Structures are given as C-alpha cells and as structure tokens.
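Suppose a colleague, Dr. K., hands you the sequence of a protein chain of 116 amino acids and asks what its three-dimensional shape might be. Before reaching for any lab equipment, you can write down a predicted structure in token form. Begin with the sequence itself:
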Amino acid sequence: MRFLDKKALLFIEPCLSSQLLVLKAKEKRYDAFVISAHSDQRTLPEEVINASSLFFQVSTNDESAVLDLVKKIAEKFYIDAVILGAEDYVSLATKVATYLNKPAFAPEEALKSFFS
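The predicted structure, expressed as tokens, is then:
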C-alpha cells in the first residue's frame, strides 16, 4: 500500500549522514521506514525516531530476523528504495534491496536522487 503517492524509503541501521536523511524525508513528506537495533552504539536520537513514519526495533545482527521483518513490511507497504546506513550493515541492506528488487543507495547517492 502506498500512502498518498508518497515516496517510501527504507533505512537500515541509519547512522550519521543517513540519520539526517530521515529528517529530510519527513521535510519532503516521504515515508521513512527505519529498521534499527536502537541499542548500544546504534542508539538513534529521539528526533530521528520521531521523524520516522514507522520505526522497527530488531537486532540488525540477526539477518534472518531483519529479512523476516522486511517481508512483512513489503506485504503492507510499497518501498521505493533502501538507504544504506552503518558501514557494518551495508551487506544486510544490499540483501534487503535485492529481496525487494529495489535499488540500494548510499546516503550521498540518496541525497542526489531523492533530496535535490
């Protein structure tokens, strides 16, 4: 399902520059779906969580749990692209994008493609 023909971006473990893109997505009225462990060094600022259209807390070290969650999200929502986050999770985000058959963007690429 697509909300009001908005772009929908899926962020996997956003960090630093990709956190800023979650905020920019809200400004642009895009749907920003965020998957994060939200613990330890991967704790997100409240501002980022609040800017998310939907926030999913799951262990991003558990690839099968993330992929199961993504399958459920994809059953209900249309995703336009996956935005890569923390360097340690690029492989996971790429697998998610492949499963969804959608492009995966590094934050710099996403900035040019969706926010310019």
